[in-house]
């Protein structure tokens, strides 16, 4: 039989981090011809991840423009990917998660009558506006997908409730855990002395990220006021905040947090630096989705600056807590983790529900089963929590 031709499509840094281990896995197997198409919905941050994992795009649409909108991203990606699919004619397109590139890639494949595999399928908040546009991107992609590679049992359950046939779903764990095996190193050296010279044993490093659309304005200001209060009241605390490049984020953050001796406001970090800083820190405070998966695998408590999450597994397991964006609540929940050893240990030692580092292997194995190369359906990931 000819090789199974797979076209992997992504366009942002988070997608690239999670798809890189799968691309590497497919490329090393003789049964697959794996090619990569990127939209470069994000440009600089995406390129850094490709370099880190030594992946070269076969097709680069380079669609990113100044002041781009959801309309421009969607139409540019759809038109560009349509031309790529005309040329490649793959047996399957694989997309990831919930970005606009993800939806456009699945739609372009559908228009070409090409099968779609959806990695990280089945995440839901059940509110189409939160997060926006991600919740609808992943639901629409799910409607177009032929195979759903769900990271967890809860994600599988969401899909079953939406009418997806059980045989179209396979629970694999999350590929981001695969990526951490590559990026996190005991002897890692940061690119700046600011991070290399921190006293990670004596200081309590709080790693912060906050930049989601729904948190812009007053919610972000609330977050920053809580962080400043923590830095003022706990001399052993050092807050490290890689600040998103969005001016609406930077203006608020630097106005409230700038100039404090125990708050480091940094430019966005490269993927390997972010992962290793996470491994060294005391806890994580974030509105990110990906960090809710990554930090638990590194034994770090996570306080989530949102009122909902599409990743309830870690909340159930006890390593993540949803705390919203009110200043006093943020301060109080962080204070507990700084002062109550039992509270901290309970979160830090909770079982990571997101994977064991073999998700990419499971996806590749299932593809061999799906295309009739292997007779036996491979075992799925089962988390114990």
TrEMBL record:
Entry keyword set: Isomerase
Domain named UDP-N-acetylglucosamine 2-epimerase: residues: 24-367
EC number: 5.1.3.14
Gene Ontology molecular function terms on file: UDP-N-acetylglucosamine 2-epimerase activity
UniProt family annotation: Belongs to the UDP-N-acetylglucosamine 2-epimerase family.
Full protein name: UDP-N-acetylglucosamine 2-epimerase (non-hydrolyzing)
Annotated source species: Tepidanaerobacter acetatoxydans (strain DSM 21804 / JCM 16047 / Re1)
């Amino acid at each position: 039989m000819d090789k199974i031709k797979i076209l992997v499509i992504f366009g942002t840094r988070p997608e690239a981090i999670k798809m890189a281990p799968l691309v590497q896995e497919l490329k090393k197997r003789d049964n697959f011809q794996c090619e990569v198409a990127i939209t470069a919905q994000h440009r600089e941050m995406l390129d850094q991840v490709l370099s880190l994992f030594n992946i070269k795009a076969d097709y680069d649409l380079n669609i990113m423009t100044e002041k781009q909108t959801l309309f421009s991203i969607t139409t540019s990606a759809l038109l560009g990917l349509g031309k790529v699919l005309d040329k490649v004619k793959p047996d399957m397109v694989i997309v990831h998660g919930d970005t606009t590139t993800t939806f456009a890639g699945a739609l372009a494949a559908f228009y070409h009558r090409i099968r779609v595999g959806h990695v990280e399928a089945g995440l839901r908040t059940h509110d189409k506006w939160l997060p926006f546009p991600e919740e609808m991107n992943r639901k629409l992609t799910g409607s177009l997908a032929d195979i759903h590679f769900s990271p967890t049992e809860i994600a599988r359950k969401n899909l079953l409730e939406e009418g997806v046939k059980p045989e179209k779903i396979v629970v694999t764990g999350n590929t981001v855990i695969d990526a951490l095996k590559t990026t996190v190193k005991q002897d890692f050296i940061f690119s700046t002395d600011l991070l290399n010279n921190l006293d990670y044993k004596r200081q309590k490093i709080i790693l912060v990220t906050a930049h989601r659309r729904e948190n812009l304005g007053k919610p972000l200001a609330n977050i920053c006021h809580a962080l400043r209060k923590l830095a003022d009241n706990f001399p052993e605390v050092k807050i490290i905040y890689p600040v998103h490049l969005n001016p609406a984020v930077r203006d608020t953050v630097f106005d409230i947090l700038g100039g404090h001796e125990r708050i480091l406001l940094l430019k966005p970090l490269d993927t390997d630096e972010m992962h290793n800083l996470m491994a060294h820190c005391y806890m994580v405070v974030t509105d990110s989705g990906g960090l809710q998966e990554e930090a638990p695998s590194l034994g770090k408590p996570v306080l989530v600056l949102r009122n909902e999450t599409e990743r309830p597994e870690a909340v159930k397991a006890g390593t993540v807590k949803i705390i919203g964006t009110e200043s006093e609540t943020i301060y109080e929940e962080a204070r507990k983790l700084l002062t109550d050893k039992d509270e901290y240990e309970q979160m830090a030692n909770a079982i990571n529900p997101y994977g064991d580092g073999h998700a990419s292997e499971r996806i590749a194995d299932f593809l061999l089963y799906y295309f009739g190369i292997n007779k036996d359906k491979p075992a799925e990931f089962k988390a114990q929590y």
